[in-house]
Specification:
Strand order of the largest sheet: 2-1-7-8-9-6-3
Order of helices and strands: EEEEEEHEEEHEEEEEEEH
Distance between the termini: 116 Å
Number of strands: 16
Strand content: 35-45%
Number of helices: 3
Radius of gyration: 45 Å
Largest sheet: 7 strands, antiparallel
């Protein structure tokens, strides 16, 4: 004895035959040497097809299932609502259930036939198809996501230093000169300006709206470094043109060179006069 259920509705008369179709998506590929290989893929969705009778009278083999009108209205509603339903087949022998089929399915199509030669009973030919749960994954363009987070604006370009022509004044008690711009941790101090010094800035690097300036920290050492442009420590005395900047830098370097030469000459003269003294 078999019992069929669609969405919980028991069919009043068990179908005489159930067709189960399991297709495949395998693909045969021809090789360069003329041979073939079979590319195995996932099986197609299983299809169940059968015909069942909706009688207007009671037969000895009726299963006391749902009324014909109930089942027809249920099928129509399922299609309209695009619902996934449970399809069950219970196979019994005596009081024992041999095995059962439980499958989530969609109603693909069904055909209703009314035939006077069949005592006006209704025959329904139906095809059900297995439903496999799935979920969609939305791939988001990282650039677009960053633009959304920035209020529709594209992300900021990577910060770079730009040339500048400025004369600064150190107004804090002292300002350390660092190897790099924009960071404090792991950025060693290589020299220091004292209050009142007026270095030239050769480049500017913006970090969180605060400028850092590239400076020559000592002509004697011949090095470069960066100082913070925080107004607590540094003041811009004047924004210069390129020509003005070059002229002032030349005068500064000329003055420093003269001091270096004077220092060197004095040192050599002292060494000549006092050869036994080490400096």
């Amino acid at each position: 004895m078999y019992f069929f259920f669609i969405d919980g509705y028991k069919l009043p008369i068990t179908p005489s035959k159930l067709n189960v179709k399991i297709g495949n998506n395998n693909k045969t590929i021809e090789l360069a040497n003329g041979g073939d290989i079979n590319l195995i893929k996932c099986a197609k969705l299983t299809e169940y097809s059968f015909s069942f009778l909706l009688p207007f009278r009671t037969y000895s083999y009726s299963t006391n299932g749902a009324m014909p009108r109930e089942i027809l209205e249920a099928l129509k509603k399922i299609k309209q609502e695009k619902r996934i339903v449970e399809f069950e087949v219970h196979r019994k022998m005596g009081n024992e259930t041999r095995f059962s089929t439980y499958e989530k399915v969609s109603i693909e199509d069904y055909e209703i036939v009314e035939d006077a030669e069949n005592n006006s009973d209704i025959t329904v030919d139906i095809t059900l198809k297995e439903f496999r749960p799935y979920k969609t994954i939305h791939l988001i363009d990282p650039k677009k996501k960053r633009e959304e987070n920035n209020g529709g604006k594209d992300e900021k370009k990577k910060a770079e230093s730009v040339p500048c022509y400025k004369q600064l004044e150190i107004i804090g008690e002292g300002l350390g000169i660092r190897q790099m711009a924009g960071v404090w941790d792991g950025n060693p101090q290589i020299d220091k300006f004292v209050k009142g010094e007026k270095p030239f800035a050769y480049a500017e690097f913006m970090v969180d709206k605060t400028p850092w300036y590239k400076v020559k920290h000592s002509k004697l050492k011949g090095g470069w470094g960066w100082i913070s442009g925080n107004p607590t420590y540094t003041k811009v005395l004047k924004n210069l043109t390129k020509a003005e900047f070059d002229e002032r830098e030349f005068k500064l370097n000329y003055s420093i060179d003269n001091k270096l030469h004077s220092y060197s000459d004095a040192r050599q003269g002292t060494q000549s006069a006092n050869p036994n003294i080490n400096y």
